[in-house]
Structures are given as C-alpha cells and as structure tokens.
Amino acid sequence: MDNSNIVAMFEMMDSAGRGAISFVQYKEALKTLGLCTADEVLKGEGHIVTLDQFRDEVCIRPASLQAFARKF
Q1: Domain of residue 26, residue span
Q2: What superkingdom does the record give (predicted)?
Q3: Does position 62 have pLDDT exceeding 70, yes or no?
Q4: How many domains is the chain partitioned into structurally?
Q5: Residue 26, CA distances (Å) to 5, 17, 55, 67 in order
Q6: 20: helix, coil or strand?
C-alpha cells in the first residue's frame, strides 16, 4: 500500500491531530483493510498507536498473510 494512502487513513482516524489513534481505532482499521480477522487477538488493548506503528503494521501484515496462505 502506498505511503500517502496509509497517512490519509491514519489522519482520518486522528481527526484531533494528536499524532496517535486509540487501539480500538487501530484494530478496526486493520479489520476494514482485511489485515486482521474479527476473532484475531491483538496485544496492546488500551494503548495508543502512532503513525509509524500503524504504517509498520499495515506494511508487514500483508506479507504475513501471504506467507500463511502459501502454507495451505
């Protein structure tokens, strides 16, 4: 995914411009993008997620999902 798209998505969730989103927003964004299943347990409940953390996860998860899919 292109960096400008990742930044735009993050900024939509960070409407207050704090530079961080809640863990709940982060989890919902991953589900919406198809990078996380509804029943997947993510660590970090209650913490904030910065743009750098969000970007890293969005970029890493597709590779992880593809590797998992190749096993089956």
Answers
A1: 3-71
A2: Eukaryota
A3: no
A4: 1
A5: 15, 15, 11, 23
A6: strand
Q: Are 31 and 58 in contact (CB under 8 A)?
A: no
| Closest-CA residue to 49 (of 25, 16, 15) | 25
Summarised one tens digit per residue, pLDDT across range 26-47 is: 888 888 888 877 677 666 656 8
**CA nearest 29: which of 16, 18, 17, 53?**
53
Give the phi and the psi of residue 20 in degrees, each rounded to 5.
-155, 155
Q: How many CB atoms lie within 10 A of CB 61?
A: 15
Contacts of 11 (CB under 8 A, 6+ apart): 17
CATH assignment of the domain containing 37: 1.10.238
